Amino acid sequence: MVVNFKVFKKSSPNGKITLYVGKRDYVDHISAVEPIDGVLVLDDEYSRENRKIFGQVVCSFRYGREEDEVMGLNFQKELYLASEQLFPVAEKRDFTPSKLQERLVKKLGGNAIPFTFNLQPSAPASVTLQQGRDEAGEPCGVQYFVKIFAGESETDRTHRRSTVTLGIRKVQFAPSKTGAQPCTIVRKDFMLSPGELELEVTLDKQLYFHGEKIAVNCCIRNNSNKVVKKIKAMVQQGVDVVLFQNGQYRNTVASMETTEGCPIQPGSSVQKVMYLTPLLSSNKDRKGIALDGQVKKEDTNLASTTLLASPEQRDAFGIIVSYAIKVKLFLGALGGELAAELPFVLMHPKPGTKPKVIHADSQADVECFRQDTIDQDSVDCY
Fold this sequence. Notes:
The chain is 5% helix and 45% strand.
């Protein structure tokens, strides 16, 4: 039986260097990150001349608009997470090629060189911030690239004609174990008035998947002499740009307000369930919304919650995303309002973990990318 497996391919503009990778999404398991396995193929000319070829994994963080980069300003930082000389091959190489690499080396010939890069778990996840309609250029956020180039040293200024740059993503999936059911109770008393107003908010679970409906259970006990006139529930996305001291803000990505069951008179209680679904389709024109990183010009979704192994990792290089449910009770101009918040986790489910078996007669379905860009639509090669 012949089995097809997917391979991504990109060549340098001069055609002397070609990069093959088996995937473009690499999973952060909190304790470790999937290794970046690939194969480098050199032209005969470069191979004969023993041209030095280097490979790097670059984490690029853009925190300002590209069109505002004037008078020498630069709103982009680059962090080199891995760097290694790939050719001439070192005599002592401490890694074992994967099955995919072995199959590609056998298929591509003697100029094929397998390589592996390892990322630290503290590296940030791929996140981009949605641009406004009138904005052009690269979006703000965190992006990753595998860069292969010819040069004299790892710090040599690269020449575009002999450089391959392929965009990849560092992603996180939902954990297998979920936390306790979220629940909170807030109370408010009033000056010169007896009793208090109590709001209890409960979610049916802590972890939700993208596109899933969130049931917000609200229990209101009005033991005061005030009247609740309206109830509003919101899903708020928290964005923490850790490069800035004041780079924290929130966006409401889903909301619902109702007067059903209102006014809630003194001495009465009301219990109701409000349903919210946070979706990017409802926030297409909202500037600053955090989205999952993109590797091609295709639709994405709201950014997933950033999972950290410890709070100290908040100082890492990147953008941290969180979500919370906020419920407000409106009591009128004189009574003010009462609010309760509940954090929750919004992520993609972990895909099937069954490994693909690559047989000796397997055929590679190669997807190529144009040389002048990393994000233009790909074309299939046969």
